[in-house]
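User: These chains co-purify. Model them together.
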Amino acid sequence: MPQNARRSERFVSREQRELRRELLVSPYPELGLVAMDGPNDPDPSLVVEDGRVVEIDGRREPDFDVIDHFIARYGIDVDAAAEAEVLTDEEIARRLVDVDCPRDQLVRLSRGLTPARLARVASRLDPVETMFALKKLRARRAPANQAHVTNLKDNPALLAADAAEAAARGFAEVETTVGVSRYAPLNAIAILVGAQTGRPGVMTQCAVEERRNLDLAIRGLVTYAETLSVYGTEPVFVDGDDTPWSKAFLGSAYASRGVKIRFTSGGGSEALMGRSLGYSMLYLEARCLAAVRAAGSQGVQNGSISCVALALAVPGGTREILAENMIAAWLDLEVASGNDAIASHSEIRKTAKLMGQFLPGTDFVTSGYSVMPRYDNMFGGGNYDADDLEEWMTVQRDWQVDAGIEPAAEADVVAVRERAARAIQAVFEGLGLPAVTDAEIEAATYGSTSRDLPDRDRGADAEAADGLLAAGTTSADVVRALDERGFTEVAEAIVGMQRQRVSADYLQTAAVIDAEGTVHSAVNDPNLYAGPGTGYRLDGARWELLQSLPYVVDPRKLLEEAAAGEPVVVEAGEAAVSERADEVVVAVGPAFGDALRATINGLSHADVLAALCDGIRAGGAEPRLVRVRRSSDVAFVGHDGALLSGSGIALGLQSKGTAVIHRSDLQTLDNLELFGMSPLYSLDSYRAMGQNAAGYALGHAVGPVPTMMDNYARAKLIVKTTLLHARETAAIVPGAPAVELRLTG
Amino acid sequence: MRFDPNTDYPLGQKRPDLVSTPGGHSLGEVTLEAVRDGRIGPDDLRATPETLRRQSAIALAAGRRPLAENLARAAELASVPADSILEIYTALRPHRSSAEELEEWARRLETEWAAPLTAAFVREARDVYAKRGLLAAERAQV
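Assistant: Joint model of the two components:
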């Protein structure tokens, strides 16, 4: 665009949209700003000599970096490699979308593929194929979801209330973190108590530094962690102060303390940290995933995660993220598929991206849905938050897809929030921590964000947290505090979680725990999808639950409202053709003023008729009322009226308020003026229609009544329209002649 | 009845007889009453090395070798004190340890804690770190 050129108002308007706050860039492979199929990505290769991997993706063993060494040692199954060697990329890609090729076979094959080969095969699939592969490859039978629970004040009552609501809404895991790291034990206790109040069996984690985290685990205050980050290049891995060996060791250490572990990786992180070495996001993520599997992690949190906006800045970014999730599932890892960090300012774009995981279903559709408003999300998350819950649940209902969030009635949510806040009050008292006040409980129960909570003495809390650690406080103390103060059920639930730690069943792939304490993992509840009618389908009681949203109404009730009141017209014999040249027939539909009493806009039929008659008389003509009984279609109602009218002009009117001015010599589906925007009409509108009809009857020059438009009217009112029209249609008497009407009263 | 990794999962439900706490209590004894009375203490509320080894066997039976190896290392680490675990983790971070220091940890894992799998894992790290310049002595040259 040349400087000073006149701008198009439409281009200027679009520049104001939310989307344009973001920077989209063309690929820059040297900096890793390329989604997949990067020009510098190596050609896949795998050489095995004497059962030993000596070349991966063009690199010979002496040139292996630390990640190659790790994958070569633990991440390649040489038997599967031999099997994969004879297949082309296309053949493997076809198997990924072949319902007759079982997941087991694909998982075995994946163990013989190098990172470059995984990425290359993934790039053979288009978005829908990738979604299908992901659906097929998910580890656990049923999808689930994870919640984020944090607040800017680290308020324990609010944390407990939010964790309880998350649990009551069906989240299988709840994750918190801290503003001040010394708070870690308090926050961990708050969400443990809250979650077990909301639903027994929900797993919890507190994302803090490893030493603190391990300590919380040993005390039985957390049950899982996903803080173990890995990267796809050696320099970034080392900059992150780890190696695959140190991370894998840490994973084993957590497992030794009964903590379920998933690693974290995601496309774009290497570019962001300045050491992509010129490789594409997907290739580097494939390296991460191969290392994660090699480390023996049961799962991974991936899909660009906190770098999502960087992936979305380059062409194919959304597709790349989906491909990452698919490769992780293919490698038999549990997948918590991102959608937590804010992906875009644009609601359209954000949700378009979400569908890649939402529709196939992943083990955790988000790796943190913010159950509180974004304001209180301390993960830099809140891609979807408390305010979006109804949209999320409605989209589940629209697609008949289970994305892990259940509806809950307001009264139930308020009750569970209060119970959790009271439970944490009891625990704080029992453990000798600074008191949680009734004012905090009330604000946590009914408030929106931590702004609504009274401030606590943060210094005293932090000191008490230190004291709690020094005193060796564990989950057993939490249990006793609850039990002594009458919170027996919550105490039982926390003991239940300790029993889970003893049996350690939740260390298996993709484990979640149901309210009865049964562990569901890829071992005992695997995804066995093999085509239509198999695998997990949202149906039965679960589908009933997910479609019964609190704001869904019974359409029968709506009809009862429309029929309230006394009839406004009486029928007075068959209508005849009139000779009167100054007459306008007002022809109403079969249910008008009888089975139905008001328009869709809530105007009573008596008032509408009075306004029409006023208008007709003001225009110098005389109204005559008839009811057309043989049709509910406004064109037929109007035209039948016109055939009876002495002037040949009639005003047809449906019960819902749609009107037409018709003339006897026109084709039925033609008209003089049609008023189809019934939700917008006032009594003045009907008066103006009457006056115009009179003008046509008397042969005056008539300007049309100004048209009104509301393009949302249909979305808003189409259900009511359908109901009202159905009632009108039900009142039809086939073949019956029109009848004269008189207003009652 | 013998343990069968193919059919006995979840252990807590199908084979509670095989699961006990570090203090020798059965899974069924882990109740609110027991915690209330102090019969079950915090040290009882965790998996034993034996349980972790069984979970490792279950993972292997399900075809997940790396997960099984991870859980086998976890079984070994269950009896290593937390402070030592964090020291070993730190030692495995890049540029923290010399080859000798890592070898010393491997030796202690073997002799003090009967953790041969983890010891081998640490030695493997030592060899690769030497090749990749990730040992402490080489820090200055990086």
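The longest strand of chain A covers residues 224-229.
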